[in-house]
Every structure is written in C-alpha cells, then in structure tokens.
Design brief:
Radius of gyration: 19 Å
Strand content: over 45%
CATH architecture of the largest domain: Beta Barrel
Strand order of the largest sheet: 1-2-5-4-3-6
Distance between the termini: 37 Å
CATH superfamily of the largest domain: RimM
Largest sheet: 6 strands, antiparallel, barrel
Number of domains: 2
Shape: elongated
Number of strands: 12
CATH topology of the largest domain: Elongation Factor Tu (Ef-tu), domain 3
C-alpha cells in the first residue's frame, strides 16, 4: 500500500488533544473529513497506526485535527514529529492531475528528446505549481507545471516532456 503525507504534527493545539499540523497536502478539508481513516506514522519506531478523524479546521497556516483516541494535550505533544498519512487512491484525482509524490523522480525530457534532469521536488508558488529539476553537475532549474511548458506526462514510465523556452535552463 502507498501513502500520501498529510502533515507533520508539531504539537497540541488545545487541552482536548487536538493536533496542530504543518500541512503537506492540498485540499485538507477533503482529507480530514469526519470519520475518514488516517494513519499515524512514527519514524523513530517505524510504526504505523490507523486512526479516525473526529474534526478538522484550519487556523492560519496550520491544520487542526481532532483524532479519536488522542484526548489530552500530553498525548498530542508525545506525537510531535510524527506524520499523518492517508492511503494513496488514484480515484481521488481528476484527469490531468497528479500526486506530487508521483512527479518526483520523473525524468525531464525536452522537445528533442534530450534528458535534462530529474524532478527533485514539487514546489507551490502563488503563480503556479513548479517542478524543481536537478541536473548532474549544473544548477537546478524550474519548470512551471502549466500547459505552456508541459507537453506530456507519463507517470508509468517516470517521464515528463517539456517545451524549453529561452532562459529556462
């Protein structure tokens, strides 16, 4: 089973054990619906536990999530540094949309079929979602994930074809 990271627990928000998370997901209101199954991953122990969402709200740049079984500030604070995850389900995507984790590791190929580098990170800027492309022995470059630049995405073969413009590389 593959999982998507929803957020990193940075501590408690209230005495009732509500978790305060740094969000790592788009559409948190969909991911944290009441009754939704989520997974708590502790990297220190490499353990994963299935939990259920009671409630969600956003506060500034943080997600505040109440999880069944975490009912005190102390329990929530013990989970600092753990990740909340959800099962990856392709049905959650609209056509032409991709999970960021699927884009990372894809080769970037230009219109002449030259391999320019590999996607090392997907970054969200106000203007567009952008691919950071790592090149061997050269500076990284960025490709906005827009139709003007992206000509084809082949996730199964880990390839993204782009139209290079002057100044991009």
């Amino acid at each position: 089973m593959e999982y998507l990271d929803l957020g990193i627990i940075i501590g408690s928000f209230s005495l009732d054990g509500t978790l305060k998370l740094k969000s790592l997901t788009n559409h948190p209101e969909k991911r944290y619906q009441k009754g939704k199954k989520v997974f708590l991953f502790n990297a220190k122990t490499n353990e994963m536990a299935q939990l259920s969402v009671i409630s969600y709200r956003m506060s500034g740049q943080f997600d505040l999530v109440k999880i069944a079984g975490i009912d005190t500030k102390e329990k929530a604070d013990e989970l600092r540094g753990c990740l909340l995850k959800v099962e990856k389900d392709i049905k959650d995507l609209e056509e032409g949309h991709y999970f960021f984790s699927d884009l990372v590791g894809c080769q970037i190929i230009d219109e002449n079929e030259n391999i320019l580098g590999v996607v090392s990170q997907v970054e969200e800027f106000p203007s567009a979602i952008t691919l950071r492309v790592r090149r061997s022995g050269e500076k990284d470059f960025f490709v906005p994930f827009l139709n003007e630049f992206i000509t084809k995405v082949d996730i199964s073969n880990k390839k993204i074809f782009i139209q290079v413009i002057e100044g991009m590389l």
